[in-house]
Fold this sequence. Notes:
Layout: E1 11-16, E2 19-24, H1 29-35, E3 59-62, E4 69-70, E5 81-83, H2 87-101, H3 110-118, H4 137-142, H5 154-157, E6 168-170, H6 180-185, E7 195-198, E8 205-208, H7 224-228, E9 234-236, H8 237-245, E10 254-259, E11 268-274, E12 277-282, H9 296-300
Parallel strand pairs: 1-5
Antiparallel strand pairs: 1-2, 3-4, 3-5, 6-9, 7-8, 10-11, 11-12
Helix pairs in contact: 2-3
Amino acid sequence: MGKVSLPVVGTVEITIDGRAVRVREGATLREACAAAGIEIPTLCWAETLTPVNVCRVCVVELAGARTLVPSCSRKVEAGMAVQTDSERVRVSRRMVLELLASSVDTSTAPSLRAFVERYGADPDRFGPRATPAAEGVRDAAHAGHHAEPDGATAATVGQPVKVDNDLYVRDYAKCILCYKCVEACGTDAQGTFAISVAGRGFDARISTEHAVPIPESACVYCGNCIAVCPTGALMAKTEHDMRAEGTWREPEQKQTDTVCPYCGVGCVLRLHTQDDQILKVTSPVESSVTSGNLCIKGRFGFGHVAGKDRR
Length: 311
């Protein structure tokens, strides 16, 4: 049997903010910036997901390019000259953040709020806050809400908080359409395809198939969509209820890593506890076993720990 030759990955040299940086071929500009110690803000990018280029907060200025380019997906090419914090970049990021924050509730979106402050964005300068698009009459009826009035469009009525199952809550008034949940539910993680983007333009929104409630959808309750949501639009019901009651005290919470006891895969669980009670379970992205993903048992199967019937 002859020798098998593996392709040799080379490096290329580019200039970032006036400094020469050598990175591997095929790397993205965001990866090149990270290697150079330069932080690039982003809302739709995640280490474990395919870049979809929708938030546009990560744009950088590339010499010779007509427009700013998304650093999360643009691959490096030898000789590139990139500016990550030019006036043009800052103005673009500020405008994007203003538009996003002018139409969503940012109360549970710490990263977005931090970027708004960092770039001096003023979401209120556009006037009254915009209303996110709704899923439509059918979903409203299932959730116990009144149908839209005659002549009303989905975008004029907004979306109520959707509580149609016992495990997680959908509050699309906080949704920035980053597509992370869609990617995690689809090819990048779970392969369930229970949710997708419905509508177009101002009527675009995240929805289940035919806008059915979650229990009637293909959802398997893995909660991987919750794990990647950057704004709290998708949230574990325990956290949502405690926040509503004013008992969610995140600064006092502890995190403890352990191994899931349900099967032999060995998934890493990160237990979030407060007052010696498990409030929610996540998994670290850096885990080689889970990459941040879990199944329904790992993420939600902790209720028995504090069960009243335990002996």
